[in-house]
């Protein structure tokens, strides 16, 4: 039965959630049976040497007379507090207190102990390091150092970095969630808990939020056009997409709860309703989602706000003493950047500029640029965007106070920016002096069969160098202004050219960037340094990293796309069949959530080993979502990267994981 349990569905999910390989197998301990159910002089119980909820140093547990262990944990009888054992079995209780102290002294950690009393004689069945809340984990770690039982390094190693998520996001009330039954499950794409009324468009999310209503935005999938609605919502639920889909990445950056890829949902967006678990939900119905587990519930489940104690600051202070890796953040807005700075980020490793184009004035001008008939018309349209983009960068530089800011130039394909509503198409046609039919034909011409490998990234800048020129002007002018306002800061902009797979692409776009930047600096009569680097996200870039490094000031590994192209998996569609791969033991984890060290990791290692000899001054980091995954951070430390970059709320996780990697050596 024990061996069979290793392969049951719950065990497989538990292992995947906790990074335990199936190949480890399980052991069986055989020991003599003792009986707690032979009369009133017998009993059984479970106890923790410290409070597993708060970490307080006091014995916590439960006890039953004339019972076996399963009676305590199954809830078929109401157990007594452990202290009452002193009245029933005073000698056994006195010995138990001594054993608890001995075991905690030996293991230097809070113990979870199971025991039986047979004929008033105490038997210890097992002990293990007890599971605890994140709050308790920090309290116990700090207390054990104060008690002299642990060094700071040992205390850091005690804490599971992933558990810090629960300190930074709202969670469901423990009693309420235990009583609730989920209707379905998707991917826990961004942690936290949220409840609200279901809405089906970004516009409705905004309108309902402005009316004072809490909403959950439910979509087949999200796109950059949904940003404002995502901000307005308490949480996001999508039918399609994986751990690095648009919804997942943006929600993590905002600190919003998100469940993605729930393929069991039958969606009817046109009529604003969906069906899950045999129930149909219409606009306005209440739902609750758990972005940590991926579970979806009917109705309202109460949430409790996140609380950060003084122990959090103590532990984070220790991590910064021992880690080598710097930790930056992926942030596109000043508010995200400020939150990341509060949580310890040392710079921006990825600013996605495309998210800045979707406000009303900007998207209109950008669409004018897309549908322009000449270079001059494109430049005129881009000139309208330039002051907005410059203003965005100035706010980011202000928020970072002289710390590094790495700005990725435009990456998505142009079809993501075109209008889809008839009224917007008609307005664009009027502005452009074209017929609606002409605009629709141009929109159709932008369609691509595989847009993730299509006309995007540096390919846009090769086709339309005026886009790169405009973004360079915005970056450099913003840096000049902020440097003048804060002479004590050292502003060194980092311009990142995405999706380079051939060194000639980098040379071509870099020439535009350098000529534009140098002209701006000369015109301002200032001395400003800047860096031009590239995102390493195409396997060919890893294979030719020596050529690319000779022409780049830095590499930033974009492991979302590098994983997608390395595996040949669509990160938006893989969730549909990955469960079958887990069941067949082909994959043991989601490669978009945890870095594949054997394959994708080997590509990264190759790029580093080729790149560093070609450019001894090059610095290297990672800005894919793996930058906030503890096992991936440890791998980045082993590779010798200079920094990892992750969404703001994962910064403390990365700091702790980086310290653990350094301590392990």
Structure overview:
48% of the residues are buried. The protein is an alpha/beta fold and 665 residues long. The mean pLDDT is 93. The protein has 4 domains: 1-27, no CATH class; 31-132, ATP-grasp fold, B domain (D-amino Acid Aminotransferase, Chain A, domain 1), CATH 3.30.470.20; 170-304, Phosphohistidine domain (Glucose Oxidase, domain 1); 323-413 and 448-664, TIM Barrel, CATH 3.20.20.60. It starts with a helix and ends with a helix. Helices cover 44% and strands 18% of the residues. The strands form 5 sheets. An 8-stranded mixed β-sheet has the order 7-17-16-9-10-11-12-8. It has an 8-stranded parallel barrel with strand order 19-20-21-22-23-24-25-26, surrounded by 6 helices. Strands 3-2-1-4-5 form a 5-stranded antiparallel β-sheet. It has 28 helices and 26 strands.
Low-confidence stretches: none
Q: How many DSSP helices?
A: 28
User: Taking all residues together, what is the mean pLDDT?
Assistant: 93
The CATH H-level superfamily of the largest domain is Phosphoenolpyruvate-binding domains
Oligomer: single chain
């Amino acid at each position: 039965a024990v061996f069979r349990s290793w392969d049951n569905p719950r065990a497989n999910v538990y292992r995947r959630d906790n990074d335990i390989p199936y190949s480890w197998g399980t052991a069986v301990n055989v020991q003599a049976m003792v009986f707690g159910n032979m009369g009133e002089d017998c009993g059984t119980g479970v106890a923790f040497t410290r409070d597993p909820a708060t970490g307080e140093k006091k014995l916590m547990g439960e006890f039953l007379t004339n019972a076996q262990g399963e009676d305590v944990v199954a809830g078929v009888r109401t157990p007594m507090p452990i202290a009452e054992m002193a009245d029933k079995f005073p000698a056994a209780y006195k010995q138990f207190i001594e054993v608890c102290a001995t075991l905690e002294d030996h293991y230097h950690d809070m113990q979870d102990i199971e025991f039986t009393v047979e004929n008033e004689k105490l038997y210890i069945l097992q002990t293990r390091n007890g599971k605890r809340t994140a709050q308790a984990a920090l309290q116990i770690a700090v207390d054990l150092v104060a008690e002299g039982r642990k060094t700071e390094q040992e205390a850091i190693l005690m804490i599971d970095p992933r558990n810090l998520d629960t300190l930074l996001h709202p969670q469901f009330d423990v009693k309420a969630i235990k009583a609730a039954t989920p209707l379905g499950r998707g991917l826990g794409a961004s942690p936290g808990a949220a409840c609200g009324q279901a809405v089906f468009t970004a516009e409705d999310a905004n309108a309902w939020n402005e009316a004072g209503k809490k909403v959950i935005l439910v979509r087949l999938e999200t796109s950059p056009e949904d940003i404002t609605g995502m901000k307005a919502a308490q949480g996001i639920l999508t039918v399609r997409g994986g751990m690095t889909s648009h919804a997942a990445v943006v929600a993590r950056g905002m600190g919003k709860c998100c469940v993605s890829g729930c393929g069991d949902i039958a969606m009817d967006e046109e009529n604003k309703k969906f069906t899950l678990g045999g129930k149909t939900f219409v606009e306005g119905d209440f739902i609750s989602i758990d972005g940590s587990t991926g579970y979806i519930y009917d109705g309202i489940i109460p949430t409790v706000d996140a609380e950060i104690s003084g122990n959090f600051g103590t532990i984070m202070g220790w991590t910064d003493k021992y880690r080598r890796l710097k930790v930056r953040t992926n942030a596109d807005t000043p508010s995200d950047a400020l939150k990341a700075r509060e949580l310890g980020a040392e710079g921006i490793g990825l600013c996605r500029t495309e998210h800045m184009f979707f406000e009303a004035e900007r998207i209109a001008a950008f669409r004018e640029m897309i549908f322009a008939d000449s270079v001059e018309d494109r430049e005129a349209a881009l000139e309208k965007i330039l002051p907005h983009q410059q203003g965005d960068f100035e706010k980011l530089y202000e928020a970072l106070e002289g710390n590094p800011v790495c700005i990725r130039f435009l990456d998505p394909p142009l079809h993501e920016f075109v209008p889809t509503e008839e009224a917007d198409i008609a307005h664009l046609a009027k502005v452009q002096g074209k017929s609606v039919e002409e605009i629709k034909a141009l929109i159709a011409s932008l369609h691509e069969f595989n847009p993730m490998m299509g006309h995007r990234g540096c390919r846009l800048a090769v086709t339309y160098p005026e886009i790169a020129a405009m973004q360079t002007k915005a970056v450099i002018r913003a840096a000049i202004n902020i440097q003048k306002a804060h002479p004590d800061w050292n502003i060194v902009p980092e311009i990142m050219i995405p999706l380079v797979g051939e060194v000639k692409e980098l040379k071509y776009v870099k020439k535009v960037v350098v000529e534009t930047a140098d002209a701006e600096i000369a015109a301002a009569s200032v001395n400003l340094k800047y860096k031009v680097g590239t995102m390493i996200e195409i396997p060919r870039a890893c294979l030719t990293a020596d050529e690319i490094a000779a022409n780049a000031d830095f590499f930033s590994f974009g492991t979302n796309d590098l994983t997608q192209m390395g595996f040949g998996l669509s990160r938006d569609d893989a969730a549909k069949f990955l469960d079958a791969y887990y069941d067949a033991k082909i994959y043991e984890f989601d490669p978009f959530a945890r870095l594949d060290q054997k394959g994708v990791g080997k590509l990264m290692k190759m790029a580093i080993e080729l790149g560093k000899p070609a450019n001894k001054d090059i610095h290297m980091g990672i800005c894919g979502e793996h930058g906030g995954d503890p096992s991936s951070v440890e791998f980045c430390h082993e590779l010798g990267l200079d920094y990892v970059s992750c969404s703001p709320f994962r910064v403390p996780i990365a700091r702790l994981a980086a310290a653990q990697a350094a301590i392990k050596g």
